Description:
The structure holds 2 protein chains of 2 kinds.
Chain A: H1 2-22, H2 32-42, H3 45-49, E1 54-61, E2 66-72, H4 74-97, H5 104-123, H6 127-145, H7 152-183, H8 188-193, H9 195-200, H10 204-218, H11 227-231, H12 236-245, H13 250-262, H14 266-287, H15 293-314, H16 317-348, H17 364-378, H18 384-397, H19 403-425, H20 445-463, H21 466-479, H22 497-515, H23 520-527, H24 534-556, H25 561-582, H26 599-617, H27 621-641, H28 645-666, H29 678-703, H30 710-723, H31 728-736, H32 738-760, H33 765-771
Antiparallel strand pairs in A: 1-2
Helix pairs in contact in A: 1-2, 1-5, 2-4, 4-5, 4-12, 4-16, 4-20, 4-21, 5-6, 6-7, 7-10, 10-13, 12-16, 13-15, 14-15, 14-19, 15-16, 15-19, 16-17, 16-18, 16-20, 16-21, 17-19, 17-20, 18-19, 18-20, 18-22, 19-22, 25-29, 26-27, 27-28, 30-31, 31-32
Chain B: H1 2-20, H2 25-46, H3 71-102
Helix pairs in contact in B: 1-2, 2-3
Amino acid sequence: MLTAILSGFVFSIFLVFAGKFLKGKLAVLSALVPLALFVYFLSFLPQVAAGEVIRQEIAWVPSLGLDLNFSLDGLSLLFSLLITGIGFLVFAYTAEYLKNHDYLDRFYGYLGMFMGAMLGLVLSDNLLSMFIFWELTSISSFFLIGFNNTSEASRKSAVLALAITGSGGFLLLAGALLLGNVAGSYDISEMVGLSSNIISSDYYIWIVILLFGAAFTKSAQFPFHFWLPGAMKAPTPVSTYLHSATMVKAGIYLLLRFTPVLGGEDIWNTTLITVGGITMFYAAVHTLFRTDLKGVLAYSTISVLGLLVFLIGLGTQYALTAAAVYIVVHALYKATLFLITGIIDHETGTRDVTRLSGLRKVMMPVAVAGLLAALSSAGMPPFVGFIGKDLVYESTLEMGNWAVFLTVLAIATNILVLYAGFVAGIKPFTGPLPNDFKKVHLPGILMWIPPVILALLGIIVGIFPGIINDSIIAPVVNAVGMEGSAVHLKLWHGFNLVLGLSAITLATGILLYAVFKPSAKKERGIARLDFIAPLTLITNFGHGFKAFSNWWTRIFQNGFLRNYVSTIILFLVVLVGYSLFADQNEIPIDLSSFSRMTYYEMIIMGIMFLAILFVVGARSRLTAVVAMGVVGYAICLMFVIYSAPDLAMTQFSIDTLTVILFVLVLSSLPKYLSISDYRMKAVDGILSISFGVLITFIALEVLGEPVNKEVSDFYAENAYVLAKGKNVVNVILVDFRGVDTLMEISVLTIAAIGVFSLLKLRLRRDDRELKD
Amino acid sequence: MEILLAIIIGTLYASGIYMILRRSLVKLIIGIILLGNGANLLIFLLGRIAKGAPPIIPEDSKVFLDAYSDPLPQALILTAIVISFGLQSFAIVLVKRAHKVVKTDDLDEMNATDEYS
Lengths: 772, 117
């Protein structure tokens, strides 16, 4: 399985080197990769249908609980087949659609990367590796949406999609870590057994919220749905593959995968029903007001995603079966419709549904595929869509008190989805053929065969539902924790309430299609409500946040280094000062333990104090430097008095050197400026003095604490015994901590090189000219 | 005596910070030097001070016989003095250079990272 996942990435990397050869006629060969994978996954069908779960475990970072554990059960297999199957058709279709495109190889590279990531996502049993693949799908989606990188709208949509799905990724990571901590393992298969522990834990609510956030952003649920219509800026094969059939279903996959772990609680079911219900109806209504074919399809995709979330929320045996069937149904007809839209766009140059008509006369096979897909989306018997719709109604009808409301909502949504399917699959092909489309012809066979295959599959599976019943749907239902053997997909249930509801849906939907015509005027009408649309609100929030960050940065990162210093000092004084004085168990400053003052010490201190005042108050550089020297020598004397001869010598030589260096470069140093006004000086003065006072207090408090001399005693006792030296300070420096001293010398050398080069460095020519 | 030292250390810190907060480049360097001296003295004081007991083992002995002042802070400070000299000399030359190239010694005019034009 790892090989299967990696093959997508390997294919992408291969294209980096061999892309040139694959750009021309050979492009279609790249479709062999998904085809081989499709056959590979198909070969697992009997095993999975028999209830087996195929596992592969590879330790990656065991200490983090991050392992490449893959498991293939019914749910993973369904998605793997969709990814590779539709992937195969899309790869083939692209060869014709982007024929002779400059960056065809790049496009295939992104597609291959996406395919690998998506397979990894649905096969990972380890939640952390799943997160990694989840992010990889977001990233490849970003590249694919922005594929036409010369168009600003494309780039904006790509960034928007990345922002929304990427923030969902963060939520997934947070949820995964929380879940892993609660469960004690990151393996989803182990979590299923711990379900009751997880649900009773305090963190359950947070885990659910975080995972919902991830699923809703990825699967474009209200109010995060708006990135999906924007993502339609991508070339149509991408819309087909990522934004309809596979990637946007990753959220659905996540919810299904965690149904047996987290499901069954009120918060789980109610939230999903509410969000799914709102999304499916809201998006379905929007399809009425779109004239761009891809816009219509985008909103009807969101609506179906909402329906899937809604079904997972219902959570019954019927509902989950319906969800599984609907994933298949939707993949088949929506991919067909997208591919057809791509053909129309490619051949006529427009996707405006008000302009398109009569195309059946010039591209019959495409029209047939469109008709079949539209009928399947309408849920007309004997299409697979009919089975799906029946199951939806059956599951809403058993919801007790809410049955009527939920069923009506489902019917209304289905009517609108039917309308959308008809607009995309039938409308462009009926009516008279306008003159400017007379010369339109069928595209290459690679482009029209894939939608025909998908459309035919829709009707074949509809007539013989047994094909997918035991092999695919039952294992999926098993995988989400329900009784798979109870699944019996049938086309004909006899005359009952559900059939009546289906008839109502079909009749009303067809009536709506006949009466309601999409027009630019209606599109403009709904645009007036844009100011309360989630997209506008979130964009405005984004602008506001940016403005706030700008303001914040301007205040705190203003480029004046002094302000940074004073901010740091201010916070230091306030925080440390507060904790020092708020501490009740204050250590009393014990004056009696201090040594006696002698008059010569006091004189030295006095000199030092005066010298410091001189430095601060000096009006010329020379005065300041000389006063600095005095301070240094005074410190030197202190070292002499307090038994530190080595320090005294070092301080003496270093201080002398500093003064000499200062005097040497003094002439070329800038004048001693005094620019600040009195207010500034006062503020800085107060800040500095309070800082000094704080340091004094800290020093005195620390002196009251007992001192630990263990390390010093070790050095003192062993200086001669081990290192044969009697000056302990020297022994420490050159023997015990010799390597440190070596490093110090290196640092000094680097500083010396820096000084030397700064002095000797010639100015660049333009600077020299400037000087002259 | 310690209390006087603590006050001097506080003064060194205060004057160091005050000088760093000035706009003049030269004052910045002086501030850094003052701050460094303050820090050295602080370490010295906190290692406890003692008079007339340098950490040197007497001629005729292999170990200390009397009390001795703590050698560890001294070793640390010795390192610190030398390193701060490296810093100071580099800073002095850098300031000289910056003044020559940017032609200002007002720190407020050196608040952009962009290449000078």
